[in-house]
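1st attempt posting a full record on here, be nice pls
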Amino acid sequence: MQAITSNFAKARLTRKKTLAALGLTGWLLSGCQSAAVPPPRAIQLEQQWVLEPGDRVAGHEVTGSLGDVSIQLEGHSLYAPFTGQVAPATQPGCVIYATPDVPAYLFRLCGLAQPALGAVAAGQPLGSGDYLHFATMRRQPSGTWTIVEPSTDILERAIDPKADRSIASQSVDQP
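the predicted structure (as tokens):
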């Protein structure tokens, strides 16, 4: 009887070790996997240009188009101006940034190397690059989007999130 009890105890101990090893292996593997990449976000624009990001001309990829603002980042980071979400765009080399702070707008960012995808906090790096092509899109009542002039304030927040933008810090010309 004692031998049977001893065998049960050994089997239970072996099973606990096996389960612990499997749990540790699963924990290690889950820590090594990256978060799920959101699916590409397709945007239906009202305007259609002859050349758009992702097109090719003489074998070279078009990375900006009419309505984009191009900025030399010179390897510096671009930051989330507000808390939001980043998803790949359907155009290669571009992502779509959306934020509940300005819900009627989407921002297409092209030219970032290894962009952050998924949820982002305000001030979090979105990626870096030599240049940025930035397009602001406004939702239309029809459900389509139109490219509009970008906000200087949002661009400044994205390029330098620590800059003081209070009215008191702005220089005012005195008469």
